[in-house]
Amino acid sequence: MISLEDIQRAAEVLRGKIIRTPLIYSPTFSRVSGAEVYLKLENLQIAGSFKVRGATYKIQTHLDEIKHQGVVAASAGNHAQGVALAARGAGLPATIVMPEWVSIGKQEATREYGAEIILKGKSVGESIQFAQELTQAGKTFIHPYDDQDIITGQATIGLEIFEDLPDADIIFVPIGGGGLISGISSAAKAIRPETRIVGVEARACPSAYQSRLDGKVTRVEAEKSIADGIAVKQIGEINFPIIEANVDEIVLVEEDQISAAIFTLLERKKVLAEGAEAVTLAALLNSKVEIPEGSKVVLVISGGNLDGLLVDRIIMQGLQRNGRIMEFSVSLEDGPGSLTRLLDLMTKKQGNVLGIHHAHRRRDQPIHVTLLDLTVETCSFEHMEEIAEELREGGYRIRMK
Prior knowledge:
Layout: H1 4-14, E1 23-25, H2 27-33, E2 36-41, H3 51-60, H4 63-66, E3 71-74, H5 78-89, E4 94-98, H6 104-112, E5 116-119, H7 124-133, E6 140-141, H8 148-154, H9 156-164, E7 170-174, H10 179-191, E8 196-202, H11 207-214, H12 239-246, E9 249-253, H13 255-269, H14 275-285, E10 296-301, H15 308-321, E11 325-333, H16 338-348, E12 352-358, E13 369-377, H17 381-393, E14 398-400
Helix pairs in contact: 3-5, 3-8, 5-6, 8-10, 9-10, 10-12, 13-14, 13-15
């Protein structure tokens, strides 16, 4: 187990080397949940996630052992960048082994922090295996979660939460390998034992949830998840007893709930969070835990390194899910003013046209008719139906997509 004194020493080591991230109050999420909801924004941390805390503490407290050979780690994302940045801060070389399928964006981000990148392995597990082999050359392996020092570094988040909100009642924490929640729960139970710690996993990879059911570390099969950062098939051996002792409840969230939470954070709070980090909001909004009215609730938003193309898809899906985007096809007679008349009808109902595509002519279509695909911004599903009805009354035949 990790003592409060250990965590306080870690905070001193990290002082000036990481960002002390803000804890912000959310009126929107508070109103929806009936609680006082706060967001711990580790997405604003150096390198975009909490991972730099544990990596920095590990490296800074083992400089004599690491020496000039440097460090090696394996990761498909945030741990890679955290280790690379921590090593650069200590003036040490870093080698990061990444799976062969990792995105170019993540490779470049890690390389920009000064690390040497090796693409090896079909999975993160294979990458870790190869990285551990490199320790034979004298490099020090930095594990992403199953390590006492890594856990202690992550625990400093818990200290900061209670410095800003001493009477926090419930803290929601994502669970992947278990390093983050092991650290935060250790700090929480040492400072305020009555604070409830809720771990959140994606149902697609419920390794901690299943381990708790089985009473032992259990390896699970993982489905593809938008929360890939916590899709860890087996939690850490060091982490499991800490989780058993300190975590009050573990809940699971669905893929569509995670996607909706990412969109909601972005639209309502202008906060960009990865799927693995938005699971905490997903659990809150979908009432996965009973929360007494007026409770002070903290959601740990542990990272924000989300691929730009994925952000675009999530936004579009979120708008569609909330009735904010209307997509339909309509047949329009060729001729001066025909498109203007169509647009005038939509303007009458305050639909904002985002895009018009003249589809190719079809064989079953009259020669004087053009098929148009339209994308229109709307306020709600009711607004969509009002526009559709206006078009039908105007003599247009539309087909919703």
